[in-house]
Amino acid sequence: MDATIVYDEKDVTKSTVMATIDVAGVDTGEAARDNILKTDSFFDVARYTTATFTSASVEKTASGLKIAGNLTIKGITKPAVLDVDGPTAPVTGMDKKQHVGFSASTTIHRADFGIGSSFPAAVLGDDVKVNIELDVARQ
């Protein structure tokens, strides 16, 4: 994943996120499954090599942040909300930069993006939980 995160500690509503995920490089640890995920039934990497998320708003919650934005997969854009824990306390990395961590999650409906449409819901559920763990270097 490649991301640009602007985090304003004093006013989180001024924060922004723009992320690009290389779906063509999907690696689940099982080559056969990876090959299926790359087909037009799933991510269609021959036509769409990336998925993107762009924030529209950021708000502070009791447990972290709520980031609302637009998720684009296979050329289809739908609203998505990330529930975020973090940032963690900063630590100095081996690169001598300050690093903070974030954990984010959301649930998407695969049918909204034309993912796995040839599989019945009884075989492949429509709700897909997405978990993201980020280590971010402060610039």
UniProtKB/TrEMBL annotation:
Please name the InterPro entries in this protein's record. Answer: Lipid/polyisoprenoid-bd_YceI (IPR007372), TTHA0802/YceI-like_sf (IPR036761)
Q: Where is the Lipid/polyisoprenoid-binding YceI-like domain?
A: 1-137
Q: Where is the signal peptide?
A: none
Which Gene3D superfamilies has this protein been placed in?
Lipid/polyisoprenoid-binding, YceI-like
Matching PANTHER family, A to Z?
Answer: PROTEIN YCEI
Q: What is this protein called?
A: YceI family protein
Q: Which organism is it from?
A: mine drainage metagenome
Q: What is the lineage of its organism?
A: unclassified sequences, metagenomes, ecological metagenomes
